[in-house]
Amino acid sequence: MATVTDKAVPETDAPAPRPVQVTSRWRGTPTVIALRILVIVVALALWQVMSGPVLPEYAVSKPTDVFDALTGMLGSASGWTNIRVTAIEVLAGFGLGVAAGTVMGLVLGSFPLLGRVLEPLVAALNGIPKIALAPLFLLFFGIGSWSKITIAMTGVAFVVFYNIYLGLRQRERELVEVVQVMGGRRHHVLGYVTIPTLAAPFFAALKTGGPLAILGVIGGEFIASSEGVGHELFTSAQNLDAPNEFAGLIVLVALTLALNGVLSALDTYALKCLGLAPRRNRPQPKK
Q: What burial class does residue 141 get, using C-beta atoms within 10 Å of its C-beta: 0-12 exposed, 13-18 middle, 19+ buried?
């Protein structure tokens, strides 16, 4: 009896690291991508089967009809014209909004008294829904592209402003004083303290402002426009043309993903240049 017990104890306490390796292998990038594709395929299959018997086909259409409408849009000159107009308006509004918000944030954040005076006014203007300003911008700029660009710029500018402004207010005063005590000038404070402090909130504002720029442009095109993806979406909704409606939404999703991808790559590159990117743990040499 004693011999059997002594042999059983070490077998029970033996480590089993293999399940951990299997779990980490299943969580790899190829598996995640395959699962994403599987989810999309299943969703499209359910959509195709349920459209008609369960859901009204005139409202949700079918993936096959949406695909035909999308290929028709991408295969026509008018479709690419609408995409080009919307993309230009989004990029112009986004760029102008980033520039305006950065200047506002730096000025009000660098001068505390001016910030205390104007911050409530900026908060009051930010409380106005940007789409509610669309009729006012249409009166000033007409139904052309500038009215949509201005709407997009307004939404992006406030997001960038608050991230820059609050980032400057939260800047560690001790670091600024250390640089100044060591003989640093304003450009040293800017390079060693201000820019590294503002890098993360600035790029967070860019990623938040991208969808806001698209939302502003599409909202302006809904209200009054003669071309653009938003104009086509509004026309399709009036004509109860669900396939073209979903095709336009797919174009907007692609535009959003493209803009977010560019901003993510720019974020990674800038943080790497500033030395703020997360470092990977290097394997320790075996003794």
A: middle
CA-wise closest residue to 80 among 266, 199, 255, 281? 255
As a whole number of angstroms, the distance between CA 155 and CA 220 comes to 12
- CB proximity list for 159: less than 8 A, separation 6 or greater: 97, 101, 205, 208, 209, 212
**Residue 210 neighbours by CB distance under 10 Å:** 22
Phi-psi region of 227 (alpha: psi -120 to 50; beta: other; left: phi over 0): beta
Q: Where are the alpha helices (DSSP H) in the chain?
A: 2-12, 18-26, 29-50, 57-60, 63-74, 77-110, 112-126, 134-141, 145-169, 173-181, 186-189, 195-223, 229-238, 242-273
What pLDDT is stored for residue 7 in this prediction? Answer: 47
Instruction: Tell me the pLDDT band of 281, cut-offs 50, 70 and 90.
Output: low
Q: What is the DSSP letter of 1?
A: -
Name the token pair of 219: 């909202």
**Which residues, including other chains, have CB under 8 Å from residue 136's CB and lie 6 or more apart?**
none
Tokens of 57: 């086909």
Q: How many residues does the chain have?
A: 287
Helix or strand or coil: residue 51?
A: strand
Is 218:151 a contact under the CB 8 Å cutoff? no
Distance of alpha carbon 61 from alpha carbon 48, whole angstroms: 9
The string of pLDDT tens digits covering residues 131-180 is: 888 888 888 888 888 989 999 999 899 999 988 888 777 665 655 555 55
Chain segment 95-124, per-residue pLDDT in tens: 999 999 999 988 887 787 888 888 888 888
